[in-house]
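Much of our argument rests on the idea that a fold can be written as discrete symbols. In the encoding step, the backbone of a single protein was reduced to a row of integers, each denoting a local shape. This step matters because it turns folding into a mapping between discrete strings. For completeness, the protein is quoted in full, as a sequence line and a line of structure tokens:
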Amino acid sequence: MSLELYFHPLSSFCQKVLIALYETGTPFEPHIVDLGDPQSRGAFLKLWPIGKFPVLRDTETDRIIPETTIIIEYLAQHHSGGTELLPRDPDLALRTRQRDRFYDLYVNDPVGKIVTDKLRPMGQKDELGVEQARALLRTSLDLIETEMRDRRWAIGDAFSMADCAAAPSLFYADKVMPFGESHKNVAAYLARLSQRPSFARVLEEAKPYLALFPK
């Protein structure tokens, strides 16, 4: 087994890569990173000094691949398992990359801002930053609501890298700013994503850690 994944099951960005691995049926060796444990943190920083996960290591080629989108593109090139998470058609591939970045930057990032602010001690909260993040998230949900009126998946009829990004982003967005009543199409899309075997497996594996998610 040449692929090793360094990750944490609760992380939305890690979940994005796990979905891709399960969709393609790619075997890998999991390494759960506990940044609160000095030994685990030290070993991970030795591998990737930036200290952000997930990170994929290909022992066969001796390559370290960070960043979720790049990891999934690497899988598409070398370990696709016959599953096209990134379409071969250049225009469709560009649309897929655009939606992938949309969910990472305009859904996942503001959710992360809201969540991390909950962990800050009193007196160090960033109320303005959180309100800006909520405003961005509302705008993003409005755009997705319109977009998903006549689509099954992010770019049409086929599940893609964009859906790998959308699934955990929307799952956590619904926790910090529930949209079931206000954005019916988004909620229906999230329901389809949650029923997808790859994401359902990711959610099941994250269950033991969900108590760590700030209320």
In short: The chain has two domains: 3-78, 90-196. The chain has a mean pLDDT of 95. The domain at 3-78 is CATH 3.40.30.10 (Glutaredoxin). DSSP finds eight helices and four strands in the chain.
